[in-house]
Amino acid sequence: MKHTLEQVYEREQELKAAFDAAKAAGNDTGMKEARDAYHEMEDEIARTEDNDFGFTYRLYKQMKECGNEYIDLNFSIHDEVGVLQTLRKYGVEHFTFSSGWSSAVESAWIFKQNGCKLEGLVELYGLNRDWTTGEREKVHGYLFRLQ
């Protein structure tokens, strides 16, 4: 069975909610059941999906947890073409690129040369939170459309 990024994310959230509810109720059996179901899900994904799925899922989950609309590439990329192939493989149509590494402009150029259209600059939520308010930092990135 092939999985979609959204299906896995929703299932993970359901299991997390079940675990949290069991924990709040002091229900050790419920916590174990939720934990076991999570591990079963992980095993199923490991049997049916490749490493590209795991890479893309981590980006998708990060997008959801940060509250962003698009997957964000916020790291130094050494295989831009491979990353683009992977994103296309899982149906990603847009992504942001907010890497501040010194090679970021070169990566953006490679994206453009490999069928991505630069649609502009956007503001998005980064990984870090303000320790006093808990709000996510805002960062800037390029918005690309995969063609």
Describe this protein's structure.
- By secondary structure, the chain is of the alpha+beta class.
- It has two domains: 45 residues; 80 residues, 2-Layer Sandwich (Translation Initiation Factor IF3).
- It contains five helices and four strands; from the N terminus they run αααβαβαββ.
- The protein has a four-stranded mixed beta sheet.
- Strand 3 and strand 4 form a beta hairpin.
- Helix 1 packs antiparallel against helix 2 and helix 1 crosses helix 3.
- The longest helix is centred in the first third of the chain and has 21 residues.
- The chain is globular, with a radius of gyration of 18 Å.
- The mean pLDDT is 94.
Q: What profile does the largest beta sheet have?
A: 4 strands, mixed
Please give the order of strands in the largest beta sheet.
1-2-4-3
Radius of gyration based on Cα positions: 18 Å
Distance between the termini: 27 Å
Judging from the principal axes of the Cα atoms, what is the shape? globular
The proportion of residues in beta strands is 15-25%
| Class per helix and strand makeup | alpha+beta
- Named CATH topology of the largest domain: Translation Initiation Factor IF3
What is the CATH class name of the largest domain? Alpha Beta
Helical amount: 40-55%
Helix-strand sequence: HHHEHEHEE
Overall pLDDT confidence: 94
Number of helices: 5
| Strand element count | 4
Sequence stretches where pLDDT stays below 50 over 5 or more residues: none
Total discrete domains: 2
- The CATH architecture designation of the largest domain is 2-Layer Sandwich
